[in-house]
Design brief:
By secondary structure, the protein is α+β, with helices and mostly antiparallel strands. Helices cover 48% and strands 12% of the residues. The chain is built from four helices and three strands, in the order βααββαα. A hairpin with a 2-residue loop joins strand 2 and strand 3.
């Protein structure tokens, strides 16, 4: 038998707390009203989630790594700003 978790338990595992604002935030994503849509299902009037749903939600909410941007070019800057920029990167 698959173990399921209530919205409060789901919020504790994914967000670390189950404050009313956290639960509203989750339910909006369960319904698809906000991005990213999180996996869960409705049993009667209550939302439920499995361990797999929680693991998938954590993966969806994990921030993506962003590369370090290159030093911006000096075009479009004043001479003073360009000099400061070039002096900093040299």
């Amino acid at each position: 038998m698959t173990e399921t978790f209530s919205v409060e338990e789901y919020a504790d595992r994914v967000l670390g707390s189950h404050q009313p604002a956290d639960i509203q935030w989750l339910v909006k994503r369960f319904r698809g009203e906000s991005k990213p849509q999180l996996p869960a299902y409705k049993a009667g009037r209550r939302w439920r989630g499995t361990e797999e749903d929680i693991e998938q939600a954590i993966e969806l909410l994990r921030p993506t790594k962003v590369g370090v941007p290159d030093v911006p070019s000096a075009s479009g800057l004043t001479r003073t700003s360009a000099r400061r920029l070039m002096g900093r990167s040299a």
